[in-house]
Specification:
The strands form two sheets. A five-stranded mixed sheet has the order 3-2-1-9-10, with no helix packed on it. A five-stranded mixed sheet has the order 4-5-6-8-7, with helices on one face. It is α/β, with parallel strands linked by helices and about 150 residues long. It is globular. The longest helix has 10 residues. The protein has a single domain, classed as Metallo-dependent phosphatases (Purple Acid Phosphatase, chain A, domain 2, 4-Layer Sandwich). The protein has three helices and ten strands; from the N terminus they run E-H-E-H-E-E-E-H-E-E-E-E-E. Helices cover about 15% and strands about 35% of the residues.
């Protein structure tokens, strides 16, 4: 089993990143889905992609991570109209079975057309007025994926 800590959209609020790291010392990987508004050294050990507010920093627009038989597409999500069709097409083009995305500031976890879509919400401010949050994602030995929302 691998345990992933997935965060997004802290918009410079480093105390949320510090709390996530403090509360999750045993994660195998830490992924940030953009709009950290921080230099890579400040959010380490998070592996990040560029969000629409990260224009001062040199992050890639997307990453493909392969873990335990899964091909994970990390993307912020700006520049796309959020719909299953748009993201499914992008995932299929990248041969990904998991899409981690941010930008909407709302937690989301759903299977669609054989692809798992996970948005950890914002660890700064969610637009649906729920508590700021992030996700723990578990890649299990039998190939299943479990996701839990963690409120800050």
């Amino acid at each position: 089993m691998l345990k992933l800590c997935v965060a997004s959209d802290n918009h410079g609020n480093m105390s949320s990143i510090e709390k996530i790291l403090c509360d999750n010392p045993a994660c195998d990987y830490y992924f940030h889905l953009g709009d950290s508004m921080a230099e890579p050294e400040l959010i380490a050990p998070f592996i990040s992609v560029e969000g629409n507010n990260d224009y001062y920093y040199d992050y890639p627009r997307q990453r493909i991570i392969e873990l335990m038989g899964h091909r994970i597409l990390m993307i912020h999500g700006d520049g796309y109209t959020w719909s299953f069709n748009t993201f499914t097409d992008k995932a299929k083009k990248e041969k990904a079975d998991i899409v981690l995305f941010g930008h909407t500031h709302m937690f989301h976890d759903e299977m669609h057309n054989g692809i798992r879509f996970i948005n950890p919400g914002s660890c700064y401010h969610n637009r649906d007025m729920t508590a700021p949050c992030y996700a723990r994602v578990y890649l299990l030995d039998d190939g299943t994926v479990k996701c839990e929302r963690i409120n800050l």
